């Protein structure tokens, strides 16, 4: 692989997280349990795709990066590419990610890179709403019926093995964190645990059992789900390169 | 295509946190800048045409050579349309040399919606956002006033509505649903 500048790689990671989750959420459009939920998920998707456009714009040409890379070149974390499953599984994923993303962007808003700082400061206001929506649903499902509780438990159980990767630091990110351009994500873990545990307690849910963490997204090692997502997302630009309307 | 330059921080003149009202005058402003400002005050927000882009607080700075705008939300689909509308209006008025710049920082807040804009929103049937967006406690707990009957006996139906900037509420007094501009 050609040598890519650290900041470019970092902005791509940030953009890929937002892009892939935004695309996942958009799959609910027209299928959500109620019209209000449908609108909510579409709004979340829109915020995330907007953030992705800005982050990928720092890395290069956002459209080119979104539509003309293969799975191996995507550097999103594995959590965001996980399938929607049922509504509870989607909410489990959103709750874990938004709680993380809010803390992450809050810290990134003080980045020495003014572009990253500006995108983060704008995004964190949006993500606060995402975290609130997902937390509310985790409580509602967990403290709801036997059926809803079983489903949110299964959703959290599916997603939990991808949590450690959110806080993973490698050489690239350690270097950028040291330069105060990036964020030391490992330092966000304690607060994330505290916030997640508080919502789980409210939801009368137990923290899922620890599992062997699955890592690799940042290095392009993805689950099989990403390829399917890309085949949908990229179809039009692959079939008709440069198409606009 | 619209030619816009993306800058990441607003210049000193744009970092003010007060809304730029359509009728505000600024010391030392040239007649051209006043004309541009007046022109911008006639450009409606495409999703809420009752208010102008100036009322909405997304015009951050105007000078002889440029208009600086900021998006409301990161992914607001109206952003490009707004830039095109501004470009067209500037060109038609002869300001072909005036550039449009987009800035993300400082991030837009509903506190920048002008007083006039708030009144127009209310008249249009949208409850304006409470002031004090920076204070998180104000965000969602304050009750919206029904824009139709004025009752405070209202409830949130959905925190996300038909556009990124609105939530869906219901009035328990007159039983009408209404949009509320989200505090942001």
The stretches of 5 or more residues of chain A where confidence is low (pLDDT under 50) are none
In DSSP terms, counting alpha (H) and pi (I) runs of 4 or more, how many helices of chain B? 3
Quantity of strands of chain A, as a count? 0
Shape estimate of chain B: elongated
Compute the average pLDDT of chain A: 97
Biggest sheet features of chain B: 4 strands, mixed
Query: Structural class of the helix and strand makeup of chain A?
Result: mainly alpha
The parts of chain B where pLDDT drops under 50 for at least 5 residues are 1-5, 9-19
The N- to C-terminal Cα distance of chain B equals 30 Å
Q: Whole-Å distance between the termini of chain A?
A: 34 Å
Largest interface, C-beta closer than 8 angstroms, per-chain residues: A-B, 31 and 28 residues
Architecture overview:
The complex is a heterodimer of chains A (about 240) and B (about 180). Chain A is mostly helical and about 240 residues long. Chain A is built from twelve helices and no strands. Chain A has helices spanning about 5-25, 35-60, 60-65, 80, 85-110, 115-140, 145-160, 165, 170-180, 190-200, 225-235, 235-240. The model of chain A has no long low-confidence stretch (mean pLDDT about 95). With about 180 residues, chain B is α/β, with parallel strands linked by helices. Chain B has helices at about 30-40, 80-90, 115-125; strands spanning about 5, 60, 65-70, 100-105, 125, 155-160, 165-170, 175-180. In chain B, the strands form two sheets. Chain B has a four-stranded mixed beta sheet, with helices on one face. The interface between A and B is medium-sized, with 31 and 28 residues.
